[in-house]
Amino acid sequence: MAFAASRMSVTRCALPLNKPLGRTAEDCGFYNPLNQKMLAREKCIKRKKMPLIVEAVQVPEIGVPSSSSSPGSLNGWKLDSWKSKNALQLPQYPDAEELDSVVDLLKTFPPLVFAGETRKLEERLGEAALGKAFLLQGGDCAESFKEFNANNIRDTLRVLLQMGVVLMFGGQMPVIKVGRMAGQFAKPRSDDFEILDGVKLPSYRGDNINGDTFNLKSRQPDPQRMVRAYCQAAATLNLIRAFTTGGYAAMQRVIQWNLDFTSNSEQGDKYMELAHRVDEALGFMSACGLTVDHPVMNSTEFWTSHECLLLPYEQAMTREDSTSGLWYDCSAHMLWVGERTRQLDGAHLEFLRGVANPLGLKASDKMDPAELVRVCEILNPTNKPGRMTIIVRMGAEKLRLKLPHLIRAVRQAGLIVTWVSDPMHGNTIKAPSGLKTRPFDSIRDELKAFFDVHEEEGSHPGGVHLEMTGQNVTECIGGSRVVTLEDLKSRYHTHCDPRLNASQSLELAFIIAERLRRGRMTKADAGILSLLKGLANV
């Protein structure tokens, strides 16, 4: 995509040269206002303290990634240097040439997200690391081709918007909304093969790799599925952008977000009570002459994320940002590395250390404190705020024992990270029916333990990571609208792990909001006491 260069009138500019000029160009990440002559001129200007002369330049075309390119400052990192490392959890494609052909095709496709958006998310996560914001990350365990439709996308987004309002009201702080959406297809598996009635076939690894139907044709890894996954991610992201910027996410619509099947529940009633309070506040603002037409009130920031697992796809979607020279994986704003692929000498860490996206790291009770510090140093050598998010998944009892040691090790190393609770993966059990489920009480207990430990350690609980859906499913047992073991089969639709339904998700949001409110009040009380002590000593 090239734009014709045009001549601008000479302009005096006080902006520093390293700042992008223009929001649209910055968000797209393809606009570089500096050519080599201007870089040389910058040094001269700094010496002479002269105003900057800015002229329009040719905008470069979108760069197609080359496997031989290197960022230079990343200690030998290349786009394909991960191939020299041990790569776990990758499928064995039967036709290597077809795989290469699909990867080459994906390299020519437009990016799904832009570098400027990704940098904004990193800034927001940096605030969460300092206790000034809270991350709400949620969505499907694994997106599927079969359940892809506008209603499912809208309903999951709507629940996330509701939860965001609840958390923001309780915590009185910004809520960073990140979806496990528009790319969360691939799933790691504990076994490469599945045996059913004496038949052994490759395990289902997600719709972007193979199918879940138990036959050889479906279970054979097919690289063409990556193309379909890209198209579905693009359509999902397009709809999300329309909803979040087109008026649907406006605060004035907060009452209309309630889902039909939650409207007559305890959680639905609590939400409506809160929504009416928000609506009254907006009316008060309007009566005071304060406009509610500001973009902050009519739209919301929303980012996407998924597990960085299928490396051929991630490599194909990686682009060099012309404004910074950094590499961004443009398949999502945020990526995380899972428990099974976080080896220090592994391919996934090798790939991720070279991309500039905010990164998450799943940490179970098996995580050694020294290993955690080393992973953070590999992925974030400059200790940049917002770059590293530690997503803790242990179960309540193990978390109380293990998390304090991780927090202390990170603090002692002087590392800046955002601590996030994943109360889902450490609480998966098998029901008598054979279906996997998660007890709501166990999820709640792990969240309570997470907040308790951070309160004791003096660190910041920075967010929550949930597998959830806007559908009225029966996959996790418990909650105020009780889902029993007998209910599981009635609406059990997940392709992988059990998800919270909308009512359970909203109930959890109120529990977290109350804990955030308590933390806020405790800090306020401590501040008042400190002030009084100071006055007493005057």
TrEMBL record:
Main localization of the protein? plastid
Species of origin: Picea sitchensis
Q: Which family does it belong to?
A: Belongs to the class-II DAHP synthase family.
Taken from the record, one Pfam family name reads DAHP_synth_2
What are the GO BP annotations of this UniProt entry?
Answer: amino acid biosynthetic process; aromatic amino acid family biosynthetic process; chorismate biosynthetic process
| Record's keyword annotation contains Plastid | yes
Q: Where in the cell is it found?
A: Plastid, Chloroplast
Instruction: List positions binding phosphoenolpyruvate.
Output: 180, 339-340, 362, 393
Q: Name one GO cellular component term.
A: chloroplast
Catalyzed reactions per annotation: D-erythrose 4-phosphate + phosphoenolpyruvate + H2O = 7-phospho-2-dehydro-3-deoxy-D-arabino-heptonate + phosphate
Matches recorded under InterPro entries: Aldolase_TIM, DAHP_synth_2
Free-text comment on the cofactor: Binds 1 divalent cation per subunit. The enzyme is active with manganese, cobalt or cadmium ions.
The residues the record assigns to binding Mn(2+) are 141, 425, 467, 497
Molecular function terms, GO-annotated: 3-deoxy-7-phosphoheptulonate synthase activity
Q: Which Enzyme Commission number(s) are on file for it? A: 2.5.1.54
Cofactor(s) needed, names only, are:
Mn(2+); Co(2+); Cd(2+)
What protein name applies here?
A: Phospho-2-dehydro-3-deoxyheptonate aldolase
Q: In which pathway does it act?
A: Metabolic intermediate biosynthesis; chorismate biosynthesis; chorismate from D-erythrose 4-phosphate and phosphoenolpyruvate: step 1/7
**What keywords tag this UniProt record?**
Amino-acid biosynthesis, Aromatic amino acid biosynthesis, Cadmium, Chloroplast, Cobalt, Manganese, Plastid, Transferase, Transit peptide
